[in-house]
Automatic annotation (TrEMBL):
PANTHER family: MHC CLASS I NK CELL RECEPTOR, OSTEOCLAST-ASSOCIATED IMMUNOGLOBULIN-LIKE RECEPTOR. The gene is IGSF1. Residues 1-28 form the signal peptide. Residues 1219-1233 have a biased composition (Polar residues). This is Immunoglobulin superfamily member 1.
Amino acid sequence: MTLDRPGKGATMLWKFTLLLFCIRLSLGMTSVAIQSQPELWIETNYPQAPWENITLWCKSPSRISSKFLLLKDKTQMTWIRPSYKTFQVSFPIGALTESNTGLYRCCYWKETGWSEPSKVLELKAPGQLPKPIFWIQAETSPLPGCNVNILCHGWLQDLVFMLFKEGYAEPVDYQVPTGTVAIFSIANMTPESEGVYICRTHIQMLPTLWSEPSNPLKLIVAGLYPKPTLTAYPGPIMAPGESLNLRCQGPIYGMTFALIRLEDLEKSFYRKRPIKNEAHFFFRALKIHDAGHYLCFYYDGSNRGSLLSDVLKIWVTDTFPKTWLLAQPSPVVQMGQNVSLWCQGPVDGVGLALYKKGEDKPLQLLDTTSIDDNESFFLNNVTYSDAGIYSCHYLLSWKTSIRVTSHNTVELVVVDKPSKPSLSAWPSTMCKPGKAITLQCRVPYTVLEFSLEWEERATFQKFSVDGDFTISNVEGKGTGTYSCSYRREAHANIWSHRSEPLKLMGPAGFLIWNYVLNEAIRLSLIIQLVALLLVVLWIRWKCRRLRIREAWLLGTAQGVTMLFIVTALLCCGLCNGVLTEETEIIMPTPKPELWAETNFPLAPWKNLTLWCRSPSSSTKEFVLLKDGTGWIATRPASEQVRAAFPLGALTQSHIGSYHCHSWEEMAVSEPSEALELVGTDILPKPVISASPPIRGQELQIWCKGWLAGMGFALYKDGVQEPVQQLGAVGREAFFTIQRMEDKDEGNYSCRTHTEKHPFKWSEPSEPLELVIKEMYPKPFFKTWASPVVTPGARVTFNCSTPHQRVSFILYKDGSEIASSDKSWANPGASAAHFLIISVGIGDGGNYSCRYYDFAFWSEPSDPVELVVTEFYPKPTLLAQPGPVVLPGKNVTLRCQGAFQGMRFALLQEGTLVPLQFQSTPGNSAEFLLHTVGAEDSGNYSCVYYETTMSNRGSHLSKSIMIWVTGLLPKPSLLAQPGPMVAPGENMTLQCQGELPDSTFVLLKEGTQEPLEQQRPSGYRADFRMPAVRGEDSGIYSCIYYLDSAPFAASNHSDSLKIWVTDKPPKPSLSAWPSTMFKLGKDITLQCRGPLPGVEFVLEHDGEEAPQQFSEDGDFVINNVEGKGIGNYSCSYRLQAYPDIWSEPSDLLELVGAAGPAAQECTVGNIVRSSLIVVVVVALGVVLAIEWKKWPRLRTRDSETDGRDQTIALEECNQEGEPGTSTNSPSSISQGTSVELPVPI
């Protein structure tokens, strides 16, 4: 990578720190003041000589913790585990000595591990204050006139902080904060504010004892020039090793350009001299670590810079990641509807193309602009021709060597609407006063869910699994026209045609007259009762004056009169109903919730909107009031049963107390909690509450704010610092006192503040007095049925205690809603029943009760969470690892909802109270069943609900059956006619048990629910699978259980793998020990297949007939006369299907002397043999020549010595003559001879 790295690059980076901070919000970068970072400071009881006794304190920013860790010089560690969770701990150091000096940091334990360490505290020799830490924090958007906060951390309490600027002898600002951090604000940054700043501290009582200066910080006003543009050539996505050119272009000539990679600011600051008004940054050979987010800027000779360019993301990858295609609303769509295909992938800045299987050209294209605007591929008015398999691919406009992997596909299925159901009413379509009607929606086959619609109310919709809907006619509100529809499990998003409308009529004519007549009879009976009492008194008075013989007549008349009175009393009793001890709960219209929202979290008063929400779905509109009487506005209720009241920027005219009401058809709710706006720079005052404190028990203090994303602090009278602090946890927070004792009594208040420094605080809440009083034990509180109910159900709360003659009070969400004094008249144990005749959506919540007499109150009972379902869509429930488990194993039930921030409950069939509750920030919860036993078997379901609005819950999930196996002997599972069949044929899986009167269950690996259940008369169940398809392939098993103990199941049978295919899968072929023949050694070919009970055959290329047959798949090959060399393959056939052979395996080559290795050896031997032949031939030629000369030399040796002497003499004479050539002995030895005439 050819990039210039000047020595002043780090300096330039430091100078542009302000610019980076001012834009951190727009880039999505994390501020330097990381909120998860703990705070470390020093405390001492010797303010004039703090080094005499030092204690280090570590404080977590937003949560309580169970462990804290102190680090020194990266090697020494000291950790503290407090006796209870807290948000700060102390580490005593004692007197500062040479051994204590060093660099200190601290961490705290989070749920995911240790937090990031705090800022480094450097302790030097005694007599010196620690050097403060100096950094900046921007508050506003990236404009040249942004406000800058300079923070100086001095480590000690009650220090004097001085801000110095280079060139000035006196400090430009000073502060004496209550904590360890001073905030120096520079408003409206201008060029005059530029310069080098430092911070120093000193003790108030010793102004001569100064700390060392902090590290200098140079502030430069950035953004004085327009921002440049940053482009990549050939493109932003390249492969490793390819070259890339990043071009930064600005409008001004002669500037110096700089390039920054945000993932590594310190090591990726590059500077370039311009070419006219642009600079090019070249990457010759890209590497993986060069990927990231890049931006550039330019600056002049005085280091006055431009705004930063837009962020350009560079990808360096050798393989494109997969794209994901999602069909909305579902891959199964109804004919004529529209469907959107969303293509998602991790790579940005690349276009996308939509393909359909079987077509070469893309159907639709999306450029990068459309992708950034969240557009998708859209199919309008789909028909059967649109059905098929779709996939999406990346589109690159430049050449690159990046490989494109396979893509995920989605299969689009086009179906028509199911036929319409029938709708009827029982007992009739006439609504009678006080009577309910059941609407029955019916179809002749099994469906997933029914839906009921009410034409007169567009927002009305009920769901049912069995198709029965109960309609009550309270105040005549149930009349109207109804229709129903349904959906099947195969296509869960396709609703059927609506049924024929059914009209329910209200009481009219005869019914009204009958009702009036009943009331008239009741009134006449009361009048007759009074008249008859007067007649009895007159007769008794008359008896005293008449003669004795006539008294029997008056006695008879008196008896007849008394009989008539008793009859009238019985009639009145029958008309008025049977007297019960139940107290009916008259629910008031639920109180709405009021809160504020803003899009300026650091300055909320710049734009405020008040929201009002009601838990009642029948709310029509909302009214906002100010100061109790001032009518602000009226807003209709939205689908979420809420309304917004925009206030805008907060001014003096907005100051006051606000609350809202919700209006229904015939009622107005209670006012909401008052929201008090006290002015700018001050947040609204929160509300604090708590249940009565009980000695030795945990107490939660509830603090409710009015804005989301606020921090909370709890204060106690007499303590200056907050006793507890919590980070941004929503609009409300719960402070916990682990064990309430006498020392915890007192007045408490809470405050809220903005999430980031510098904090903007609210006014304190009204004080809450906590006093521990003597109390009776808490009562026993429960519901007679499950606390998870559907709308319209009847709920009875039972509150009881062994104490006699007490009164009971029922609470909902902490507010009193009903009371009962009937137990005063009854001796013995006291009890009260509180009745809700017909539960509504707004009746859900947390209920509790208390009792009292003249002297004491009781403790509050344990709460009962009443959840009213059928408000939200139903969740899905899955079992991991599966619904069939062994005893002692763990099972995780995962409940997946449709919304985040809900509370989940797990229910088991046959149990009134939910087994587990769980609140999660996400949209799912996991319930753990630990070491399951037979008692844990059964049907489970789950529900989720919101806790802020009357526990409005979802529909119950589809139940899932959990079997705990291993309690009975395992069965056997066989496939008939065999484990492999062709598509379209029939198959039967036979599960054989060992006990009669059993129910058999067929399971398939990867499927949550059982495939089928049977209860045969014998010991075996036959699960028939007609016309099997490819998706029926898989691994099957079965279990069984006795009807007398349905939750005690047997062990799994042995797994059985089923193949649905025309041809068995091909086997694998390997050679042992290798594919090379060695001298005198054989090779074993091993053929292996996936199915048992097969016969293998080995085939050799070039031979028509198969070479060998084997049942175990092993074939021995020898290389006699080189016949074992060549290509081999193998296949197999099932013994049950001898005519069906599998596909042949991949070819395997065996090599011998003619192989590549042997060929190399042969060539070497040929070369060596050739050299030997050449040498032998040469020696033969020499020997032949010598042999030819041998007879002639032997003849010469037989002559006389005189001849030899003559020859020698002549040779000497010739040697002495000039110009004659001589023959030396050497020449003779070389084979050269001279013929001389010799006289005979």
